[in-house]
């Protein structure tokens, strides 16, 4: 028994030594401003659909996307995380508040996300495309959390998730860490990010 465990461990060591690591792994799944949220070991697989001609743009961690790539709501694939669990998915901008980066701009929030039928997911905050100010590039960040039982949006956050004629103004300075604590979202289980704006 002990010998088998040792053999298994050495297989893992060989795999690591050969540079092999789990599919979807990336060392820097969060931009520097949001490292305070932890170090999710999984890279969240996110794609932006493009309507004409029909195609998709995959997000590669830390790389630039063009405004034309990010017009439509991003789609996260949680299958590599779990085939059964429910997830909460967000896209946030940590660069709208330089002094308090975790007071983010909320671009979208989706609950009840599963590996299977996206039709069952609930759009909590409708997608708003990036609008980086001229001369700036922002690090737009995707977060996935395991959805706690009875997850719902506390009333005090309703103004932040709404889509109104003055949006995106109401989405600014969303207190992300407080929201995570208030709703028991727990650690970020997978993340990814891209840059958009003037390099
Ligand atoms: C950044 O967020 C903090 C906390 O809400 C707030 O006090 C401050 O006014 C914000 N700064 C800007 C530039 O919006
Ligand atoms: C975005 O991420 C880069 C690392 O690639 C970092 O140097 C930069 O400070 C971050 N924030 C902004 C606003 O670019
Ligand atoms: C998740 O789906 C359930 C069942 O359809 C629904 O009652 C609940 O409100 C949804 N959660 C959120 C946060 O919208």
TrEMBL record:
UniProt keywords (A-Z) are: Signal
Entry annotated with the keyword Signal: yes
Q: Signal peptide: which range, if any?
A: 1-17
What lineage is on file?
Eukaryota, Fungi, Dikarya, Ascomycota, Pezizomycotina
The identity of this protein, by name, is PEBP-like protein
Q: Does the keyword Cell cycle apply?
A: no
Against InterPro entries, the record matches this protein to: PEBP, PEBP-like_sf, PEBP_euk
An example Pfam family from this entry, by short name, is PBP
